[in-house]
Specification:
The protein has 241 residues and is an alpha+beta fold. The protein has one domain: PPM-type phosphatase domain (Phosphatase 2c, domain 1), CATH 3.60.40. Helix content is 36%, strand content 30%. Helix 3 packs antiparallel against helix 4. The chain is globular, with a radius of gyration of 19 Å.
């Protein structure tokens, strides 16, 4: 485990330097309702979980382990998805939402992601130009480990077929014997139909240290990243930094 200034700083001072940002991108008939629900409940869950960690660490007079923060983010995603299923009242059989989130605690950054939205860090290079470094991995059905999980859960992976039977567009998630749901990502909130064949709401969490060369973060849905590269987006934002 990498124990940097993040673990050395006083607990309360560190907690007060905590910031959380996220983008939820809904899809399906009730995608707007799902993403709005995620926006409201995920942030509240993260705040409660992270505050609990630092409060407990203060009482026990110990430092906070990075893995505790990762686990807290994972629990927050899990709790939000359970509430979406059990309490929201939203029809999520064919509707869901991706979510990419960034939690900054002092000089440590944690990126928790499900789906194909993305967070990109702009970092200055030796030549002073900024380059875009992804903080998250796009969860596409074509990723080997994602495909293996879905196939193992009884699903199938292939692109959409047009009327002539030709494959069109990206790889998608389908039930083995039915042409549903055709989801283009392999992780998401909701999407009960896709969850039946291995689509999950478990986030991948990346952690890293922020340095003086790190200038800004861009968090956006696939509506941006589908058409622009990480470096192109950073170049567009840079004049306004």
């Amino acid at each position: 485990m990498n124990q940097d200034a993040f673990l050395a700083l006083p607990h309360l001072a560190e907690y007060r330097r905590t910031h959380f940002f996220a983008v939820a991108d809904g899809h399906g008939l009730y995608g707007r309702e799902v993403s709005s629900y995620v926006k409201e409940h995920l942030s509240a869950s993260v705040e409660k979980e992270i505050k609990g960690i630092f409060d407990q660490a203060k009482v026990q007079q110990r430092v906070v382990d990075s893995n505790e923060v990762k686990d807290a983010l994972a629990r927050s995603f899990e709790q939000t998805n359970k509430r979406l299923y059990n309490e929201s009242g939203i029809d999520i059989y064919f509707s869901g939402s991706t979510c990419v989130s960034v939690l900054i605690v002092g000089n440590k950054i944690f990126c928790a992601n499900i789906g194909d939205s993305r967070a990109v860090l702009a970092r200055a290079q030796a030549n002073s130009h900024l380059a875009g470094f992804p903080l998250s991995r796009d969860h596409k059905a074509s990723e080997a480990d994602e495909e293996a999980r879905i196939i193992g859960a009884g699903g199938r992976i292939e692109a959409f077929r047009d009327q002539a039977g030709r494959f069109v567009g990206p790889q998608r998630v389908w039930h083995k014997t039915e042409n549903i749901p055709g989801l283009a990502m392999s992780r998401s909130f909701g999407d009960h139909c896709a969850a039946e064949v291995g689509v999950i709401a478990d986030p991948e969490v990346l952690e890293m240290n922020l340095t003086e060369n790190d200038k800004f973060i861009v968090i956006a849905s696939d509506g941006v990243w589908e058409f622009l590269s990480n470096d192109e987006v950073v170049k567009i934002v840079e004049p306004f930094y």
